[in-house]
Amino acid sequence: MSKQDIEKASVEATMPQQALGTTSAPAAPSPSRLGNPGALGLFSFASTTLILSLYNIHTRGITHPNVVVGMAIFCGGLAQLLAGMWEFPRGNMLGGTAFVCYHSLSYSLLPFSAVKHQTCCGCGRVNSAFTSYGAFWMSYATILIPGSGIGAAYAESPKSELSSALGIYLVVWCLVTFFFTVVSLGKNIAFIALFGFLTVTFAALAGGEFNASLGATKAGGILGVITAFIAYYVGLSELLSAETHPVFRLPLGHLHVKRD
C-alpha cells in the first residue's frame, strides 16, 4: 500500500475492549421518566384563583379573605414555583416563566388580604408563565407583611395613595400577562383564553383600586372565576393526555400556525 493510499484511507478507532472482543452491545437509552408538571401548576393556579375570586365577589357575605392565606402560600405559591422550575428542563419557556411569576403573586396577595380585611386581588396563576406569577405572590406578600415596614409607610398617608400604588402594581402585572397572551397566540385556543381572561381580570382589579370601585373589584372576581375554570380544563386535559389509556380526551384547540 502506497503512502498516498494510507493518507486517503479512513481510519476507524477502536476501544481496547472492542479489539479484544470483550464488549457487549451498547444499551438502548432508557426513555425519560420526567412527567409533565403542567397539571400541577394549572390546578394550583386554578384552585387559588377560584377561592380568591369568590372572596372578591363577596360570596356568602365573605369580606375577610384571610382563610386563603395558607392556600396561596403553599398551593398558589410553592406548588406553582416547583411546577415552573420543572417546566424549564422540559424546554417550556412560557409555562416555566408564568408559573414562577404567579407563584410570587400568591405570596404577595395573601398578606394584602390579611392587612386590608377587604377584597384581595385574587387572580389566577398558570404553565412557564406560572412561575412568574409565583414571584408576583411573594413580592406582594413582602409589600404587606408588617415586618417589612412597607405598609407602615402609608399609615399616615391618604387611603388613595396606597390604592393608587396597588393599582399601578396590578397594571404592571396586567401588562406582563398581556405579553404571555401574545406568546400563547401560536399555541392553542385554551391558553389564549386563559391568559386573555387573566389579563382582563388584572385590568378590572386595577380599576377597582384606582377608582375605589366595589363593582370593578367584583367584576374582576367574576372574571377570575372564569379564568380558574379555564385553567382547570387545561390542567385536566394535560393530566388525561399523560395517561396511556385515558377515559376521554379534552381538546385544547391547537392552532396550526405556519412557520417560516
Write the layout of secondary structure elements.
Elements (H helix, E strand, L loop, with lengths): L2 H6 L7 H5 L17 H19 L12 H19 L5 H24 L14 H14 L14 H26 L4 H23 L2 H28 L19
Task: Give an overview of the whole structure.
By secondary structure, the chain is mainly α. It has one domain (36-241). The chain is built from nine helices and no strands. It has helices spanning 3-8, 16-20, 38-56, 69-87, 93-116, 131-144, 159-184, 189-211, 214-241. α8 packs antiparallel against α9 (214-241). The chain is globular, with a radius of gyration of 25 Å. The termini are far apart. Residues 16-23 and 106-127 have low confidence and may be disordered.
Features of this protein?
single chain; 260 residues; mainly alpha; globular
Note the total helix count.
9
Total beta-strand segments: 0
Distance between the termini: 52 Å
Give the percentage of residues in beta strands. Answer: under 5%
Note the run of SSEs as H and E: HHHHHHHHH
Mean pLDDT: 73
**What's the overall geometry?**
globular
Report the sheet with the most strands, covering strand number, pairing sense and barrel closure: none
What Rg is obtained from the alpha carbons, in whole angstroms? Answer: 25 Å
Oligomer: single chain
Q: Which structural class should the secondary elements be placed in?
A: mainly alpha
What number of structural domains do the residues give?
Answer: 1
Proportion of residues in helical segments: 55-70%
List segments where confidence is low: pLDDT < 50 over at least 5 consecutive residues: 16-23, 106-127
Protein name: GPR1/FUN34/yaaH family protein
Biased composition (Basic and acidic residues): 1-10
Keywords: Membrane, Transmembrane, Transmembrane helix
Subcellular location: Membrane
